[in-house]
Design goal:
Elements: H1 14-30, H2 45-61, H3 67-95, E1 129-132, E2 139-142, E3 151-157, E4 168-173, E5 179-181, E6 189-198, E7 201-202, E8 209-212
Antiparallel strand pairs: 1-2, 2-5, 3-4, 3-6, 6-7, 6-8
Helix pairs in contact: 1-2, 2-3
Length: about 210
């Protein structure tokens, strides 16, 4: 019997729910068992990415405390939760034939088969570097390879990087060697940090890197 997939984002704050959904998206995007065409009744990865982006935009818009924006944030989270829920059940269905398919999906599993994956604590990423991309609204980031990390979360701030509340989610990336940071404003100075995400969740943050978008 395959493990039971946790298809709910209940109990997670908005930032953690966004991180979890992004991890699921990046994991399934490269998972060999889910590269075929999905049944039309199941939200696809493009729809999941769209709901992630809408929720992220709604979180930022609601920071003004505008009640309309807050309501939009709640609505976009509901859509995201629905996509995570139905995709999770599809993952379970695929795993009925091959329980090993559950590994590396980004979902939490109640009971998993034994694997040889690294399960120790993650260290802070090293070698974090950010450079300008080909477009003025884009930067490219990379870190050194990190044992146990299956993906990487990047956060940014235009405020004081020593103030934790100033940081906001930017994205989750599957490749340590190439992370596209998009939607940046030319002339704005950004600070970035990154952390690895492994089987036991996220690790500590890297050192902060600062660069002006041009």
């Amino acid at each position: 019997m395959p493990g039971k997939v946790n298809v709910s984002l209940n109990g997670l704050n908005d930032s953690d729910a966004l991180l979890k959904a992004s991890l699921i998206h990046s994991s399934l995007s490269i998972h060999p068992a889910f590269q075929h065409e999905w049944p039309p009744v199941v939200p696809n990865l493009a729809e999941l990415k769209q709901s992630i982006d809408h929720f992220m935009d709604a979180i930022h818009a609601a920071m003004t405390r505008d009640q309309v924006k807050i309501a939009e944030r709640h609505a976009s989270r509901t859509t995201l939760e629905s996509h995570v829920y139905y995709i999770g059940h599809y993952v379970e269905m695929v795993a009925r034939k091959d329980p090993s398919c559950l590994n590396g999906t980004g979902y939490d599993i109640g009971r998993v088969t034994t694997t040889s994956r690294y399960s120790g604590p993650l260290g802070a990423p090293t070698g974090f570097a950010v450079k300008h991309g080909a477009q003025s609204t884009k930067m490219i980031a990379r870190v050194a390879k990190l044992q146990g990390a299956s993906s990487f979360e990047v956060q940014m701030t235009i405020g004081d990087p020593t103030v934790e509340a100033n940081w906001s989610y930017l994205g989750v990336f599957a490749k340590w060697s190439y992370m596209e940071l998009v939607g940046l404003t030319p002339g704005t100075v950004y600070s970035f940090r990154v952390r690895g995400i492994g089987a036991n969740g996220p690790g500590p943050w890297s050192a902060v890197t600062t660069l002006m978008a041009i």
